[in-house]
Amino acid sequence: MEGDPTLCLRVFDLNCWAIRYLSKRRQERVRLIGDTLRQEGFDLVLLQEVWSERDYSDLKAKLGGCYPFSHYFRSGVIGSGLCVFSRFPILDTLLYQYSLNGYPYMLQHGDWFCGKSVGLVLAWGGHNHFAPRSCQLHAEYCREKDAYLPHRLVQAWELAQFIRHTSKAADVVLLGGDLNMHPEDVGIRLLRGWTGLRDAFAEATRFEGCEDGCTLVPNNCFTVKTELLPFPLGIRIDYILYKAISSFTVKCEELKTTTGTAPGMDIPFSDHEAVMATLHIRRQGQAVGDNLGTAEPTLADVVTEARTEVGVGLRAAQRQRYSTGRMAVLALLLLLLQAVAALGALAGLAAGQPFPKLSFSLLAFLAIGILLLATGLHLFHTMEVKMLQGTEEQMRMALRALQEHL
């Protein structure tokens, strides 16, 4: 590559759905992913939902000869699930965990326990620095009544801010991951508008794969078919986004998605289709500015729409905080009444009446349990309110700056 101003960068992105004891045929699929990556020889591999570090270690051992540089991002209770394999030297890494990530009492969803994050690596490609990021946002679960939309918008906003403030050392910025948002959703419009990132699917010269670039499709044997009934072709929630900074330009020559089962196998890599992009990076003679697209009038509308949704979430969180606080106060009052009754019994005010120790103790334990639970939830929703208030304030200031600029 010495003297050659052009770099052809092949990027592979996949949500691996590798949850120990829960994902179907996990170990077999992890081996299949490793074999495919060895054969294809991508330059960058961005993986999500590799929640077992043993799976990461197995992949690293298998891919060591092809991808000498790799990093696993750790966060949350069960891990972020994010990892990166690179053919180029990794100079630095950084993990940012979103301030809001669902609710700890929604055990059936589990997003809170994995600590959804964005992982950044700074790599050196011979002539330029590029900063690929692997990320995953909170899942939607129910599109008609999306209780997690405010949290996902906070994550999208924090992701956009993270990209803006960590891109100064890079010539090319890449973002790959399961964003859990449709292309027309307010969150993806906010992310792209605020950062200036370009969608590889929309920009690709050639495309091959599932119709409309969908990455969660009904004919995948691991998907939940009922969730995709409103979308007969599937949905596109996995992305490769990019932009050039300084004196470089990036062009997506080709974008591919997998289309079901892996070659020669009866299973796909995951419940998500993989996304593969071929990017041509070329140095230009004159440096160009970091075009974030913040002068576009439509961006002000997007920020306003996102701020409105965050405000809806803020009011819901305030109601939850009030309800849990009231429950904690009632439980505390019940304990105080029991204490007064116990003191009265000890003082002989209820002489001749047997003291129901068993029922009294059970009621006391119940009140203590409710008090502890309600206090914990009250503290959680208090933090949620503060995070939503902070994000709404940031959006308000950003909107004011946009309107003044226009």
From TrEMBL:
Q: Which UniProt keywords apply?
A: Hydrolase, Lipid metabolism, Magnesium, Membrane, Metal-binding, Sphingolipid metabolism, Transmembrane, Transmembrane helix
- Describe its membrane topology: Multi-pass membrane protein
Q: Which residues form the Endonuclease/exonuclease/phosphatase domain?
A: 15-272
The biological process GO terms on file are: sphingolipid metabolic process
Q: In which pathway does it act?
A: Sphingolipid metabolism; Lipid metabolism; sphingolipid metabolism
Subcellular localization: Membrane
The superkingdom listed in its UniProt entry is: Eukaryota
Q: Which Pfam families match?
A: Exo_endo_phos (PF03372)
Q: In the record, what terms sit under GO molecular function?
A: metal ion binding; sphingomyelin phosphodiesterase activity
Keyword tRNA processing assigned: no
Gene Ontology annotations for the cellular component aspect, listed alphabetically: membrane
SUPFAM superfamilies listed in its UniProt record: DNase I-like
According to the UniProt entry, what is the EC number of this protein? 3.1.4.12
- N-terminal signal peptide: none
Annotated membrane-spanning segments are 328-352, 358-380
The UniProt family comment states: Belongs to the neutral sphingomyelinase family.
The entry's protein name is sphingomyelin phosphodiesterase
Q: Which organism is it from?
A: Pelecanoides urinatrix
Q: What is the lineage of its organism?
A: Eukaryota, Metazoa, Chordata, Craniata, Vertebrata
